[in-house]
Design goal:
This protein is of the alpha/beta class and 209 residues long. The protein has a single domain, classed as HUPs (Rossmann fold, 3-Layer(aba) Sandwich). The chain is built from 8 helices and 6 strands, in the order E-H-E-H-E-H-E-H-H-E-H-E-H-H. Strands 3-2-1-4-5-6 form a 6-stranded parallel β-sheet, with helices on both faces. The longest helix is centred in the first third of the chain and has 13 residues. The protein is globular, with a radius of gyration of 17 Å. It starts with 12 loop residues before the first strand and ends in a 5-residue tail after the last helix. The relative contact order is 0.19.
């Protein structure tokens, strides 16, 4: 990172990582930690979403998912959780969230973390042109998804205006869907997949059973 000269300031580099986190798992945490390191971010904000526009089959409440994210991140001071998308009954659109952070952090460089499958469909998102104009995209490769399939279409390519897209490889091959199935069967997924405090929380409130 460039050392600032006298009287200058380095803009804060903030990652935005949205999702249902139903439940949050080691893959989410390791990915955010990798983004901190590889992109030299100052912090990553996890944004658990009360009502994601593309996911309707959640089993834990918005507040329960928020609590699980906080529990998973307690040992990671630069990985934090934000409640900006946590209003029940209100669909959260990413462009509106980004605009809010742009108002609150006008000098910051914002990095939006999304999956490769989402990147491939980004030109279908609400006001995607406004979205990509305000953030740097961080796209996560996942097993079984070829990067070539995530090549931006003409509309997204035009919106990007030649701006670089950052790519990260997924660290741990695990999905929240599979963890819900395993928890529903009464299994312990293990600390390598699910943070122990999150597992305790799920057991205490009989989530996914």
């Amino acid at each position: 990172m460039t050392t600032p000269g006298p009287g200058s300031a380095v803009a804060e580099r903030v990652g935005l990582f949205g999702g249902s986190f139903d439940p949050i798992h080691r893959g989410h945490v390791e990915l955010a930690a990798a983004a901190l390191l590889e992109l030299e971010l100052d912090r990553v904000l996890f944004l658990p979403t009360a009502d994601p526009p593309h996911k309707r089959s959640r089993m834990a409440s918005a507040l329960q998912r928020y609590c699980m994210v906080e529990l998973a991140l307690l040992d990671h001071p630069r990985l934090q959780v934000s409640a900006v998308e946590l209003t029940p009954g209100r669909t959260a659109y990413t462009v509106e969230t980004v605009e809010r952070f742009r108002r609150e952090l006008p000098a910051a460089r914002l990095f939006l973390v999304i999956g490769a499958d989402s990147f491939a469909e980004l030109d279908q998102w609400r006001r995607f042109e406004d979205l990509v104009a305000q953030v740097e995209l961080v796209v996560v490769n996942r097993p079984g998804f070829e990067q070539a399939r995530a090549t931006p279409g003409q509309r997204l390519e035009a919106a990007l205006c030649g701006r670089a897209v950052h790519w990260l490889d997924r660290r741990i091959d695990v999905s929240s869907t599979e963890l819900r199935r395993r928890l529903g069967r009464g299994e312990n997924p293990g600390a390598d997949l699910l943070p122990p405090a999150v597992l305790q929380f799920c057991a205490k409130y009989s989530l996914y059973r």
